[in-house]
Amino acid sequence: MYWTMNTLPLPQYVELGVHSLSGLLWTLLLLFLWHCYRIGSDLTLPGHAHAGKLKSNSRRSMISRSVSCIKTKGSARSKQSRSDQIGPFISMDRVKEDEQGTGYLTPVLSHSLFPAQATAEAKKLYKALQEYAKRYSWVGMGRIHKGLREQVKQNDLPAIQKPHLFFLPDVPSVPFFPRDAHRHDIELLEASYPVILAEFQAVYQRGIDSKTGWTCVGPKGQAVFPLYNAGVYMTGNCRSCPCTYRTLLSLRTFINSNSLGSAGFWLLGPGASLASSYGPTNTRLRCHLGLQTPPLCELVVGGEPQCWSEGHCLLVDDSFLHTISHKGPPESGPRVILSVDLWHPNVAAAERQALDYMFSPDL
């Protein structure tokens, strides 16, 4: 048997529901048309304002006019003060710093150089920094700017830390750094200690003479066998010490691209001492790997004494006032270390790149 919808008895409220639904749809349609009509009536033609909005527009115009009058009166008074506040940051000619000395970014935005008392070396470095910024960017150069402008002040102040060439401000520093500052490089140098010592002994047995690659030959056994001298690769000496040379290239923070970095064997004979001095910059740390360390050898940095140990490294900030002495007996032999210049851990990568350019051996 087949059933159809017509045969089913439907209650009457279902039919009422269908009619009410159609009525609701017609109501919504009428509301939508009325809404569209209201929107269309609110859109006035140019030059014809709607009567209902005329009063509100006039009120708004009156308020805006009064506000503009107030602003016009106050603009003349605040114009000078606003220009004084914004001027140092947008002017290309103004180079005055504030009394606190915090406007060290001003040289970035100006064409002016340093005061008249600036040294020729500082002006040369600033010119190199400008050339670097033209090629690359000024981003990250704030501390270098500040250091160059305040170099004159640093030279006049008595201090326990006073590098004579370049001081990078806002760099935390201590006379001796912990191993964690350059753990990878220190562990690599200490692991290579036997090979490095053997290569030094082979070079030392050939005799200390300028013809065999030694420099700074002085009294009481003072001598240096450089592998890198002020960023310059010493070809003959590196060929005499190939394993040491490869170890240097494996270091992550070795300064081998500018004149601030050097590496080599340093000798100091018994009874010799080096007078108090400052290093050239605080952007580097000098790593000393002890090769031969007789007793009574001492290094004093910033008033803190330390002794070398064979096969172990010392991280020294030589921008502090430092002295070196060897007070051992003549039979104790020379004190020998491998000295390697590493980047200071608080010098950013962008600053390292800029310093490489500024202190390039080719400039």
Automatic annotation (TrEMBL):
PANTHER family: ASPARTATE BETA-HYDROXYLASE DOMAIN-CONTAINING 1, ASPARTATE BETA-HYDROXYLASE DOMAIN-CONTAINING PROTEIN 2. One of its GO terms (cellular component) is membrane. InterPro entries: Asp/Arg/Pro-Hydrxlase (IPR007803), Asp/Asn_beta-hydroxylase (IPR051821), IPNS-like_sf (IPR027443). The chain crosses the membrane at residues 20-37. It holds the Pfam family Asp_Arg_Hydrox. Signal peptide: none annotated. This is Aspartate beta-hydroxylase domain containing 1. The keyword Oxidoreductase applies. The keyword Transferase does not apply. Belongs to the aspartyl/asparaginyl beta-hydroxylase family. Residues 191-345 form the Aspartyl/asparaginy/proline hydroxylase domain. Keywords: Dioxygenase, Membrane, Oxidoreductase, Transmembrane, Transmembrane helix. It comes from the Eukaryota. Gene3D superfamilies: B-lactam Antibiotic, Isopenicillin N Synthase, Chain (2.60.120.330). GO terms for molecular function: dioxygenase activity.
